[in-house]
Amino acid sequence: METNNQPLHKLNIFSFKGVQMRTFHITWLMFFVCFFGWFGLAPLMPTIRAEMGLSKAQIGNIIIASVSATIIARLVIGKLCDIFGPRKTAVWLLILGSLPVFLVGLAHSYETFILFRLAIGVIGASFVITQYHTSIMFAPNIKGTANAVTGGWGNLGGGVTNMVMPVIFAAIVGFGYTDAQAWRYAMIFPGLMMLITAFIYWKYTKDTPKGNFDEIGHSKAEAKKTDWKVLADWRVWALTLAYAMCFGMEITFDNVASLHFVDSFGLSQSSAGFWAGAFGFMNLFARALGGIVSDKIGGKFGMKGKGTLLALMLLLEGCGVLLFAHAGSFVFAIISMVSFALFLKMANGATYGIVPFINDKNVGLISGVVGAGGNIGGMAFGFLFKSETITYVQAFEYIGYTIIAVSVIIFITKFIGSTSKEKVEDLALNMSK
Fold first, then answer.
1. Any signal peptide, and if so, which residues (predicted)?
2. Which of 125, 258, 330, 395 sits in a 20 to 30 Å window from 197, CA-based?
3. Which stretch of DSSP H or E encloses residue 226?
């Protein structure tokens, strides 16, 4: 019988009862809010580009900066969760991360703006906290689903940001402020949201179902010992590569979608933000769907089934990106965008449906490494959009072919020696001890 201080074996998304479900909702909300801070500037880039006279190369550098700092941050944040617990780690990240969000409005040149954009990128490490905290609160049979839902609803912040920030910007302009003032004042909104969320996280969550790390005798000294041998496991790097293709493409698209729609189809900043937001809104269900299907297939076909699902989602994502690249009309561009968004976000969920089963003693480290892979992908794709000789259309085409190639690598990767359902159940039993 499941007690109140044990990981939950069922996910009732409409429940707020117990520390497990409170943490479930607060941790996805935290990632959602962090997305506002992380990508709040993206839908305002047409205005910022005009004000600062930014070149295509400079915009590319800004895109790279927005995701590159997150790489190191995600590697570090996983270990901090192991040592100090996800609760303290989340609160400090929210508080410190809000500072560059508030202060980016002081930037009046390309150089200062890109430095603030680099600092803001650290906020993206919040994803690792969300996955880490959810993994602790739920039993192995439901981890993939729970991780996918919290990750997806958090990623939903990217879509809402693209829709809401242009509205906030327009409202500020409506009060008589100039465009140059409005985008700066608009960033105060996500900064305040981050501080409020820090208070909620501190007051209403616990590190584990049994209590905070310092209440249950958690050994910091033991947690500081890192089993680096886990990084010799090819499966970790295969998942890192997969996540580079799905989440890396997601954050890249969040960064460039508004500019692409403005430049290629002549949309206004508000309209471009709306349609870019539609891409992010797929996270409302698509990432969760990937995690749910991963758990179901894992229960029937073992880890081989989970790996095959991930490979298939990446293959379909890559094909969808190619269709988007060659869309000859705005309507077909939206249809193909929604198509590849579905498979991309399902791939996100399917990736983290595998991560907790790779090594149960190093969940924080592996979550951080794989999560960093997403940002490495985003950074690498950013160089394509920076190039003066490659158009945005060509960049999407190259990315599509790369994703398809990686899907083949994932398909031939053996995520576990045994492919049986019993092996997955053995892993689940070990993780629950």
1. none
2. 258
3. none
pLDDT band with cut points at 50, 70 and 90 for residue 165: very high
> Confidence band (pLDDT; 50, 70, 90) for 423?
very low
Query: Which residues are CB-contacts of 287 (< 8 A; sequence separation ≥ 6)?
Result: 148, 149, 151, 152, 155, 345, 346, 348, 349
Query: How sure is the predictor about 224, in pLDDT bands with cuts at 50, 70 and 90?
Result: low
On whether residue 9 sits in a domain, the answer given is no
User: How many angstroms separate the Cα of 49 from the Cα of each of 44, 58, 60, 113?
Assistant: 9, 9, 12, 11
C-alpha to C-alpha distance for 392 and 386, rounded to whole angstroms: 9
Distance (Å, rounded) from C-alpha 412 to C-alpha 407? 9
Beta bridge partners of 8: 138
Strand partners, 239: none
Q: Which has the closest alpha carbon to 226: 70, 83, 374?
A: 83
Is residue 4 a part of any domain in this protein? no
Mean residue pLDDT of the chain comes to 88
Residue 97 has pLDDT above 80, yes or no: yes
The token pair that represents 137 in the structure block: 């609160």
Range of the domain at 156: 19-206+224-432
SS3 of the chain: helix, strand, coil, percent, to 5: 80, 0, 20
Q: Is 221 exposed, middle or buried (0-12, 13-18, 19+ CB in 10 A)?
A: exposed
pLDDT > 90? residue 104: yes
CB 276 within 8 A of CB 337: no
Tell me, yes or no, whether 326 lies in a domain: yes
Q: What's the chain's Rg over C-alpha atoms? A: 21
Q: What CATH code is carried by the domain that includes residue 393?
A: 1.20.1250.20
